[in-house]
């Protein structure tokens, strides 16, 4: 038997054995569960247990994830929020954040991540600090609108995460932004 045929035969045997283990891991041929004790209340796992072979209702069986989890990402251009090279919010930026704060009251908030970004003008250290100040100003404003500050995380990407070329004034303007990511579930 040549080497290729032996490898193919070994692969088929391995896959067949794995399929046989997975297919009868939780049910006997009569459809009853293998891994419940005599009282029918305790489930057991063997070394072949996987989430895919978990029996419904048994310890370790997975429940379906909540389907109403919502995640959205909002990008706010820095020209709307801040003056050039500043982190103080402009009135237009505050108005935008007011709308976001109102929308947040409609959900059960999990987390908000604000990420400050800058263009390439300036040093890495300066832009990291400016991006952090911008992200922090968004957090501070949202907290002033009764958003739970313990759920808001800030970070800066400085000039390391451009969305446009920094070779033009238009591109640099697009890179001066704050990204806001909101994760929550529908309020009940």
Automatic annotation (TrEMBL):
Keyword set includes Lipoprotein: no
Subcellular location: Cell outer membrane
Cytoplasm recorded as keyword: no
Basic and acidic residues composition-biased segments: 171-180
Protein keywords: Cell outer membrane, Membrane, Signal
Phylogenetic lineage: Bacteria, Pseudomonadati, Pseudomonadota, Betaproteobacteria, Burkholderiales
Region (Disordered) residue spans: 153-188
GO CC term (a single one): cell outer membrane
Signal peptide start and end residues: 1-22
InterPro entries: Bact_OuterMem_StrucFunc, OMP_bac, OmpA-like, OmpA-like_sf
Protein's name according to its UniProt entry: OmpA/MotB domain protein
Native source species: Polynucleobacter necessarius subsp. necessarius (strain STIR1)
SUPFAM superfamilies referenced in this protein's UniProt entry, alphabetically: OmpA-like (SSF103088)
Residue ranges constituting the OmpA-like domain according to the UniProt record: 69-186
Highest taxon listed in the record's lineage: Bacteria
Pfam family, one: OmpA
Broad class of where this protein is predominantly found: membrane
